[in-house]
Amino acid sequence: MESVNASKEMTLGLLQDLPIRIRSSVFYLQVQVFENAPYEMLLGRPFLMLTQAQTYHYSNGDSHIMLLDPNTKETLIIPMMIQV
After folding, report:
1. Residue 23 lies inside a defined structural domain of this protein
2. Where does residue 19 rank: exposed (0-12), middle (13-18), buried (19+ CB within 10 A)?
3. In-domain check, residue 4
4. How far apart are CA 21 and CA 76, in angstroms?
5. Cβ contact 66:53 at 8 Å
6. What pTM was estimated for this model as a whole?
7. Could you tell me if residue 29 is inside a domain?
8. Is the sign of the CA dihedral 41, 44, 47, 48 positive or negative?
9. Most distant pair of Cα atoms in the chain: their distance
10. In a domain, 7, yes or no
11. Looking at residue 8, what is its pLDDT?
12. Which of 12, 26, 52, 60 would staple 33 via disulfide (CB 3.0–4.6 Å)?
């Protein structure tokens, strides 16, 4: 994988169909594992496309992400928090 800073790192492997629960919905993700990632989990375009993700930003600084569970068609609205 190539990072934003152009460094390259090999993955330790792939976790296939890893169940990830977000509220009442379970998503089965294909997850690449890295030894020294600066994040716990990075959700990319495949997840955003699968869930038809939409983000909403408000004038008071709040943000929400809306996800669609492709299996149940349930809509999830999740408040986003920025960690400093």
Report:
1. yes
2. exposed
3. no
4. 12
5. yes
6. 0.74
7. yes
8. positive
9. 42
10. no
11. 73
12. 12
Find the range with the poorest average confidence among 10-14, 48-52, 61-65.
Answer: 10-14
Neighbouring residues of 10: CB distance < 8 A, sequence distance ≥ 6: 1
% pLDDT > 70, the chain: 88
DSSP letters of the chain? -B-TTS-B---SEEEEEEEEEETTEEEEEEEEE-SS-SSS----HHHHHHTT-EEEE-TTS-EEEEEE-TTT--EEEEEE----
- Write out the residue range of the structural domain in which residue 30 sits: 13-34+42-80
Q: 45 near 38, Cβ under 8 Å?
A: no
Q: Is the dihedral of CA 56, 50, 46, 24 positive or negative?
A: positive
Measure the N-to-C terminal CA separation of the chain; round to a whole number of Å.
26
